[in-house]
Amino acid sequence: MRSAGFRRTRRASAAAVVTALALTALASCGTSSSGDGNDDSGSGSSDPSAPLDPKTKVTLTIDCMPPAAKAAELREWNEDVKTFNKKYPNVRIEGKSTPGQCLEPPRFTAMLKGRSQPDVFYAYFTDLQQVLDNDGAVDISAYVDDTSVPALKDIQPQVFDVARKDGKLYALPTSNYTMGLMINRKLFTQAGLDPDTPPATWEEVRAASRKIAALGKGVAGFGEYSAGNNGGWHFTATQYALGGDVVDASGRKAAFNDDKGKQVLQQLHDMRWEDDSMGRTQLLKWGDLQKQIATDKLGMFLAAPDDIAYMVQQLGAKYENFGLGPIPGAQGTLFGGNNYMIKKGSSPDKIKAAVAWLNFKNLTPGKGQFEWARTKADKLPVGLPQPNFFTGGSKAKDDADRAANATMPVENFKAFMDNPVQGKAEPPKAQEIYKILDNAMSAVLTNKDADIDKLLDTAEQQVNQILAHQ
Amino acid sequence: MSAPTLSTGKASAPPPGYHPRPGGPAPAREEFVRAVRRNVTAHGFLIGAVLCFSFFSWYPMVREFVLAFQKTEDGETTWAGWSNLSYVFNDPAFWQAWRNTALFTVLALLLGFAVPFVVAVVLNEFRHAQGYLRLLVYLPVMLPPVASVLLFKYFYDPGYGLFNRILEFLHLPAQQWLQDPGTSMLSVVIASTWMNMGGATLIYLAALQGIPGELYEAAELDGAGLFRKIWHVTVPQTRLILSLLLLMQIIATMQVFTEPFLLTNGAGPEGSTTTVVYLIYQYAFNFNNYGAAAALGLLLLVVLAGFSAVYVRLSRSSED
Q: Which family does it belong to (chain B) (predicted)?
């Protein structure tokens, strides 16, 4: 018979195990994926213009390393790390990969709030204010010059402008885009339209949409978003294309309640209800239209060039099936893109190492992401009209390399490339404004009797309310 | 051996085998050590739960309260006074979100409260295959919510959806379902009820099966029909369970998020399915405005606490 003492010991042991497990679980929950402190050894110069001291050991954590599922991209990443380490053997690159979409806004916001971003982290152009509000990025102005980034003079000033605040630079670009009109060439041909000449005006879009929808079998001519704040995003792009604006120059008043804003909504309403050429399924957001056009159920929609890579690599579509033209109206278009920022609190050596890596990987023609011959050999897409931020000699070299190694029919994007449209940044309080404009977009696409004047009046009043409380 | 108990601080009888040292009573320190030994197991088990609650429930609640009165701009966190609440009240979507949430709650109560009860009453009448039918009713609860919602998204599609195909077959006009501001919320409630009614049905069924059969026999002898039996026997006998589920349902439905988020991509046509929790999500994760999200969360907490207080008061008065 077991003694009471033994039973007590057993219970105490069980309690200890439970407590230890609970504490371990809690401790592991609180473990940061990225060290906040500096693990650099040695002491390099704190002078930003001085080169990185080769004696200083630096470890950089960087996100958006390709996941294992993207074997070819991951192989290229590892090759780039090896090549980089030949010049900088003292820098250890620790890539962090995320399955699926590398940057998901809700996760990004939580990451900033928890200060768990890696040393070098990926962001959208529009994320700057959010990052600064969370004290997340360091000012790298003093570290970026013609020595650390030799192609600096050949990079469009616009992509740096969006990375600056109060004259301070906070990011280096990796990609940029402007929105255009994506077309399904197969459906264009079937509908008797010329796929090499995408519609250039909204009247032409409407006429083409009618013809494509007439093919039947559930095919829609034109598609548009109206949910998840994406409707407001595309309203803005279309408004820019017609020469309009969303917010006035002061940034304090709505500027879309005009003839152009009315035209944006009216043409969508008419295509949906008078022509019945937009399909019955609405309340769509990013990802929905890509699936439709990739399966030959949609003729046209507004998109950035990299949607093509997504549709081919993720949805199994073929490059030959897509064409790209400038955004109809062509008075202006939304531009956007991605960049890398460096975590606030990083040591000067870490910043220097990060700038060196970003320069090698993303900003040098013929190297890293611009090593098109390697990309072609790895059977990855070459020939998309983005990234497209080089000018001058760098652009000439990159264009030539890209054309020589193209893995897709680049002539399908000729209309887009030959007719560049001036890019325009998003309005202030973009997501909040898009949320309001979503209502107007969803109304005209789901309600035949939508009162467009009233919708614009309401949206204007609501946007003014938001802007007044900035 | 009795279950370990927390020390009350009072002197207790010495355990068997205890022999006081010669020369007088045990010193206070020994008494304390014995008390600790006696209660170490209970404290050991308790500490894990307390830590979990502290980190994952109480700390976030305190943090939310603090955040609701702070703002963070350009890396500086400062006290914001009432400005977050002012922002929330001035948001054009604020009242619409509350109206939509109230509409969802009312519809969900009408459908989600009544339907499981009726189903449970019907199931209770079956003499055969009750286990199979119970499984059938509970099956949707076992499906991942996202799968269930996406299934309904397909059913509701105005182009190729099942529901419009059925209406077409019956020569009835097709509906816009989720894409009409007039029917979007009702469509969300129908999907939600189908997904969640299994659990409530089983609870009602358990309550029904706990009603003594003699009560029904007595009612029958008094000449009561089916509806009078339900009204005079079933409802009073299950009143406690009904009230509890009603409260739980109000609290759960006022926090609805998954269904509108997946069925209508959040806001729905003209914002007709924007709920309070979806608005909180928008503030925090799309607008990076944690202060406003916390302020709205606090308002929701106050409203839900109000419902809980009403419930507690009602249940006390019914006990009296």
A: Belongs to the binding-protein-dependent transport system permease family.
- Give the domain range for residue A249: 180-332+415-468
Q: What is the ipTM of this complex?
A: 0.72
Helix (H, G, I), strand (E, B) or coil at A53: coil
Q: What is the pTM of this model?
A: 0.78
| Residue of A130, A280, A283 with shortest CB distance to B268 | A283
Give the structural domain span for B144: 85-319
In whole angstroms, give the CA distance from residue B300 to residue B61: 13
Q: How many domains does chain B have?
A: 1
pLDDT per residue as tens digits for the range A208-235: 999 999 999 889 999 999 998 899 999 9
Contact call for A469 and B86, based on CB within 8 A: yes
Asked if residue A441 belongs to a domain, the reply is yes
> For B107-138, how does the pLDDT look when each residue is reduced to its tens digit (9 = 90+)?
988 887 788 888 888 888 777 777 888 888 88
Closest chain B residue by Cα to residue A455: B270
From A134, A283, A436, residue closest to B75, measured CB to CB: A134
Contacts of B52 in chain A (CB under 8 A): 22, 26
Three-state DSSP class for B216? Answer: helix
Q: Do A134 and A184 sit in the same domain of this protein?
A: no
Q: In this structure, what CATH number is given to the domain that contains residue A79?
A: 3.40.190.10
Characterise A276 by phi-psi region: left (phi > 0), alpha (psi -120 to 50), beta (else). Answer: left
B302 CA: distance to closest CA in chain A (Å)? 25
Residue B167 lies in a domain: yes
Q: Residue A156 and residue A137: Cα distance in Å, rounded?
A: 22
